[in-house]
């Protein structure tokens, strides 16, 4: 005899199915845009695996109008809310910073800034690819609890040794076993880190590929093995690359692009 799964809230089920975020689901349910087994669902409704969920076309149309923006964040901008006098990266999303090489046919409109939020962090001292989105599905894909999307970084390092800081050809003197620890074996905040891919890109620069994103993770990983991060740049999230996008400029996620 098998146990029947417990019913879960409709908004969670919709998010689990990749239809939208929980917040979007609540907004749609409130508008009467969601039916379960042919009946308009009330707020707080619970469903089981066999229940049939239908979403009104008006919700789908609203979702299609939401934008996802790729920004090459410079040093000195924070990913989220303004803090300590530093501007949030979203302030760079304005017509004058729109990359001329953007192949998208979308045109900028002020309402695209409404609800535009970072899907993941990139600390103030780092540069590179930052995703800002109005689409809850994208946010959940990139920063949801079960997200396993790869993020790739180029990390320039130095190695304090013998009272001096080695800034050139660090690869030749840095112990190989410590690179192995970066790949697997470190813990942060009392939790073991997931395995990472870490290799030398050149004698002064490491390439990291992670499937998680703890606060200042790479900097703290490097500190744990005695390295100092001199520069950090994110160049890829999933299948989407930074490419030729200039620093301080942005473009739209293309219709044919998927993380």
From TrEMBL:
Enzyme Commission number, as recorded: 5.4.99.21
Family: Belongs to the pseudouridine synthase RsuA family.
Example of a GO biological process term: enzyme-directed rRNA pseudouridine synthesis
Recorded GO MF terms: 23S rRNA pseudouridine(2604) synthase activity; RNA binding
SUPFAM superfamilies assigned: Alpha-L RNA-binding motif, Pseudouridine synthase
Domain RNA-binding S4: start-end pairs: 8-64
Keyword Cell wall biogenesis/degradation tagged: no
Entries under InterPro entries matching the protein: PsdUridine_synth_cat_dom_sf, PsdUridine_synth_RsuA/RluA, PsdUridine_synth_RsuA/RluB/E/F, RsuA_PseudoU_synthase, S4_RNA-bd, S4_RNA-bd_sf
Keyword annotations from UniProtKB, A to Z: Isomerase, RNA-binding
Reaction catalysis annotation: uridine(35) in tRNA(Tyr) = pseudouridine(35) in tRNA(Tyr); uridine(2604) in 23S rRNA = pseudouridine(2604) in 23S rRNA
Native source organism of the sequence: Pseudacidovorax intermedius
Enzyme class label: isomerase
Protein name from the UniProt record: Dual-specificity RNA pseudouridine synthase RluF
């Amino acid at each position: 005899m098998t146990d029947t799964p417990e019913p879960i809230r409709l908004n969670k089920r919709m998010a689990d199915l990749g239809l939208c975020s929980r917040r979007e689901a609540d907004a749609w349910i409130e508008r009467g845009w969601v039916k379960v087994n042919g009946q308009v669902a009330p707020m707080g409704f619970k469903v089981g695996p066999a229940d049939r969920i239908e979403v009104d076309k008006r919700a789908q149309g609203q979702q299609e109008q939401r934008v996802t923006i790729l920004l090459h964040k410079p040093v000195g901008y924070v990913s989220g809310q303004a803090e300590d006098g530093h501007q949030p990266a979203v302030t760079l999303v304005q017509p004058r910073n729109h990359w001329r090489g953007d192949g998208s046919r979308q045109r900028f409109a002020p309402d695209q800034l409404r609800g535009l939020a970072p899907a993941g962090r990139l600390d103030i001292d780092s540069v590179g690819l930052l995703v800002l989105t109005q689409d809850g599905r994208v946010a959940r894909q990139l920063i949801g609890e079960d997200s396993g999307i790869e993020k790739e970084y180029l990390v320039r390092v130095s190695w304090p040794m013998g009272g001096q800081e080695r800034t050139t050809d660090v690869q030749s003197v840095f112990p190989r076993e410590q690179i192995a620890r970066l790949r697997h074996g470190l813990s942060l905040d009392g939790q073991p880190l997931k395995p990472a891919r870490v290799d030398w890109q050149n004698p002064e620069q490491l390439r990291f590929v992670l499937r998680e994103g703890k606060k200042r993770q790479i900097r703290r990983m490097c500190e744990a093995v005695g390295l100092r991060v001199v520069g950090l740049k994110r160049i890829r999230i999933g299948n989407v690359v930074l490419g030729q996008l200039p620093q301080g400029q942005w473009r739209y996620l293309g219709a044919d692009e998927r993380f």
